[in-house]
Prior knowledge:
Elements: H1 49-52, H2 61-80, H3 84-106, H4 113-139, H5 162-188, H6 196-218, H7 220-225, H8 233-263, H9 274-297, H10 303-343, H11 383-386
Helix pairs in contact: 2-3, 2-8, 3-6, 3-8, 4-5, 4-6, 5-6, 5-8, 5-9, 6-8, 8-9, 8-10, 9-10
InterPro entries: PrsW
Keywords: Membrane, Transmembrane, Transmembrane helix
Region (Disordered): 384-458
Amino acid sequence: MDCPRCQTQLPDVAHFCHHCGLDVRSTDVSRRKSFAVKPDEPVASFSLVSTIMPRGVSEHPQTYRLALVVALTLALVTAIFGALPLAVMIAAFAIPIVYIVYLYDVNLWEDEPVPVVALAFVLTGALSLLFTIAWTMLRGETFRLGGIDASGGGLLGPGPQVTDFLLAALLVPLVGEALRQVGPLLLASRPHFDDLMDGLTFGIISGVAYASFDTVVKHWDLVTGGGVGTDEPGMWASLIFLEGFVKPIVMGTATGIACAEFSGLGRGYDGFTPRYWRGLLEAVVANVLYGGGVYLFGFVGSPTLGVLLSVIWGLLIAAVLILRVRNVLHHGLMEAALEAEAREELGEAELQFCRRCEMPLVSHAVFCNACGAALRVQQSLHPERHRVHATAGAPGTTAPAAEAPATEAVTAEGSPPQAGERPAASAAPPPGGAGPAARPPGRGEPGSDSFFDQEAER
C-alpha cells in the first residue's frame, strides 16, 4: 500500500503514514479530525495543555493540567477570603512557574535551558516591568485596569477618556507586543532553536512573562495594602481569574503565533516573511481588542459586572487564539514532515518504539503509523530515561541492525548529529548478525524517539 500524499510504501496494516502523517484509513485529507500533537483530539479543539505544551502531552498531560488547576484554585480562594496580596502574587506567577517547570521537565534544549529562560522570560519580564512602570506613572491615579479602584471598588473618573482609551487599546498593546518579540526572535534565529515548536514555545514564555510583571505593577497597591475584606468576593475572584489566567493565555498564544511563523517550517528559520508579519498583525489585533475591551467594560454600572464582562471578552479572544495556534502547529508538523521526507537524511538506527502507544516505529518515521502521533512532540533529551541501550555481545542486550554510513550517522536519541558534532561510532554487530531490538519494559520507559532533523546547516 502506498501513501497517496507522499507515495511512501506502507505496511498493509498502517493507519497513518509514518512519513507525512496522512490518515490512510480516512477521507480526511487534511487530517482535521486528528491533531498531529494528540491524535485523539480534533484540530478544532480548545484543549489548552496540548496547545501550549505540545511536547509534554504524550507523557503526562494530567500533571500540567492539575498544576494549573491547583494554582488557579488557590488564587481564587485566597481572593474570595480577602487575602489579596497573596492572591495577586499567585495569579501573577502561577502559569509562568508551571511553564518553566514544563521546559525543564521535557528538557527541550539539553544543557541550554538557562539562556532560553533568560532571554524568553527574564528579559521580557524586565522590559515589561520598566515599560509598565513608565506608562502607569505617566497616567498617574486617573488610570486603573477597567477603572476599578483597588482600595475597595467603585469607579474612577466620570467615564472613558480618549487619551486613556488610546493608551490602553493602542499604545500599550503595540509597544508591549514589540517588547515580547525581542527575546524569542533572538533565540529563534539561532541554529539550535529554529524549529517551529521552538518559536511557539519561546513566544508563549515571553507572553506569560510580560503578563506576570504587568499584573504585579498594575496591582502593586493590592500587594502592599493587605486584605480588603469580603464585601465584593465575586469581583475580586473574577479580577484574579482575569489577571492570572485569561491575560497570560491571550498574550502568550498571541506572541507564540508570530514567533512560530518567524521560525517557519522545516530546517532553518524563515525570518521576516509575509507569514511572520501576518502572525504579528494577528497578535497585535488580539491585544488591541483585549486591552480596549477590558478598559471600556470597567465603566459599566457595577464593578463586578465590569470584571465579569472583561473575563468573558478575554475568554472569547483566548479561544480564537488557541484555535489559531493549533492550526499553525498542525499545519507546521504536517508540512515539515513532507520536507523531511524529501531530504531523506536520516540514517538507520536500532528499532524504536512510540512513547504513546508503545508500537514499533518504522525506520525513518516522523509519525507513528499505529496511532498517528507526531514523533517530534515525543522528543526527549533525557537519555537516562528514554534511550534503548544496545551493547554488542552483552548478554540480554541488542546491537543495532547495521552500522549507519559515516555521512548519515545517527545519535542515540534517534536524530542526526548536531552541527559540528562528531558522529558516534556504531557498535559492531555480534557474530551472525544483529538480534531483534528489545522492547522497553513499560509504558513510562519507551525507546528513544525518531524525529526528523531540526537543525539548520549554517
